[in-house]
Amino acid sequence: MTSDTAAARPGAPGSGADELAGLPPSPAVWCSGLRKRYGRRTAVDDVSFSVARGEVLGLLGPNGAGKTSVIKMLLGLVRPDAGEVLLLGRRATDPRSRSAVGYLPELFRYQPWLTAAEVLDLHVRLARVPVPAAGRRECLALVGLGDRAGDRVGGFSKGMQQRLGLAVALVARPELVVLDEPTSALDPLGRVDVRDIVLSLKSRGVAVLLNSHLIGEVERVCDRVVILDQGRVAASGTLAELLGQREVRLRLVGAEGRAEERLRAAGSLTRSGDWFTVQLPADDDGVTVPDLVRDLVGLGVRVHAVEPVRISLEERLLAVLRHDEPAHDGAGHEEANR
Amino acid sequence: MTALTVAGLTLREAFRRRVVWALLILTVALLALSGWGFSKLIGLDTELGTMTSGEARLVASVLLNLIMFGFSLIAAIGTAFLAGPTLAGEVESGQALAMLARPVRRSAVLLGKWLGLVAFGSGYVVLAGLAQILVVRAAVGYWPPSPAGGLALLAAQTVVLLTLALLLSSVVSPMASGIVAVGLFGATWVAGVVGGIGRALGNEGVERVGTVSRVILPTDGLWRGAMNAFQDPIALVQMGPGEAGFPFLSDGSLTVAYLAWAAVWIAVIWGLTALSFQRRDL
């Protein structure tokens, strides 16, 4: 969501070929000022963000926040009332922009009269990408449908259909994968499979846009997060930016005078009885806490407990949605304000 | 490329959903029954005496039109109810989402659906109609004056109706689109019969009902052209001027201008469907 990518149109036509050759590849997704109204209800209002190549971006927000509408506008399934979208460097109005895009819709339904393998064949033909039969079989095996390739989709459970949808999204060698609630019908094992697949995509440099209600899932796999609320970007940034500074809680006995000064030197300090909470600096390189404990012991302080405190993404999300705190402390909320 | 893929998919749907088998059984039953009925025509004792082979051919010509109407009705209803779910149903169920997120133009997908339905509907009326003509020939020795032209017009009638059903299915629900398309088809046929009666009675106002309806929806006009191609040319003369309003005889072949209008009509409705589908939020 960095504002630099959102502010200037990357890969915009008009530049010379030589100039373009030296530029980094355009973002996988770039959108600016997206708006959509359904009748009198504004579903999406001035949403801008970008997803870099190889990045995993999580789209979070309550029901009706406009997440699926945003995804559909990116993919040309819904016409935005205003705003621009570039997919992999091409305008989204050009169907070729979706050549290397895989999509698992929230409402996943595939031709019930086709077999799983035939559904993949169809999508490979529509994507016009040469994927050998072995590649298609591997794709089905990856989502756990290797032995159901010849079965009609009509006989599949919801979970199996969602797995098939995942295979459809992955089959045509995508550079961008858009997953809209990819685990809504999956069992816990299936969720782990999806997480592994997303991490594997990331390791191969494939960008992923993930819309999920399962915050733990998002927290584990996403590099950055965009929180939508009532159609607007309520907060956005990297996980580190959104979750703020880390803290460490220590239970100490005999921490007076110089020991307390040493604690203050490590970071902003609050005390409650024997418990001391130190806010760690954002650029902490991982030695602040061990050094602090060593020095405290050296000063004769008895260290009973050292607990890292980390605000969860869920807590942060709830705080943003309930307006308990400013939405963009340190996080990139530039897009919504532009 | 996309259009051909989608056309193949549409045809495969018709086979896999057993539409083809259901139609095949229905058609074979209809052909067998009509073959048996036609074979009984010769030597039939009526109040006016035994029917001669010439009279039998005349009756066969009228009955052939009646049965062809049956086939065109089956094709019309079949394609109208296939066309509805194919677009509106796929949008409603979400099947369209994954497909249209591929690098495809919506107009190419629509063209594919249309081509698939055209192949299915036209293929059905041509094959079933040809089989019926052969059955009649075998039973009573009657061969229509222009069987190829008649079958082509029957196919064109099916194309008109399925194009309309596709347009409707891009704006209303699948069920509503099928019902409205078949309803309009029936209404135009009735208007054509009313127009024929008006003509027989020399009432221009009533006659105009048929003319106007044939311009608004060319199914009935094409059907009358097809009937004219199937019927014995002397049938109308034998029936006499007072019977000109009879709904299973047609008193004139189609003009080139009307055929051109039917082609324009299909193109315009197809264009409107493409426009409506292009703008639709999924």
From TrEMBL, chain A:
This protein's UniProt keywords: ATP-binding, Nucleotide-binding, Transport
Domain ABC transporter: 29-255
InterPro entries, A to Z: AAA+_ATPase (IPR003593), ABC_transporter-like_ATP-bd (IPR003439), ABC_transporter-like_CS (IPR017871), P-loop_NTPase (IPR027417)
SMART domains listed in its UniProt record: AAA (SM00382)
Bias (Low complexity): 1-17
Region feature (Disordered): 1-20
GO molecular function: ATP binding; ATP hydrolysis activity
Pfam families from the UniProt entry: ABC_tran
Membership in a protein family: Belongs to the ABC transporter superfamily.
Designated name of the protein: ABC-2 type transport system ATP-binding protein
From TrEMBL, chain B:
Keyword Membrane: yes
Keyword Nucleotide-binding: no
GO MF: ABC-type transporter activity
The name this protein goes by in its record: ABC-type transport system involved in multi-copper enzyme maturation, permease component
Segments traversing the membrane: 19-38, 58-83, 114-136, 148-168, 175-197, 256-277
Pfam families: ABC2_membrane_2
Signal peptide: none
PANTHER family noted in UniProt: ABC TRANSPORTER PERMEASE, SLL1107 PROTEIN
Record keywords: Membrane, Transmembrane, Transmembrane helix
Biological source species: Geodermatophilus obscurus
Assigned GO CC terms: plasma membrane
Source species, domain of life: Bacteria
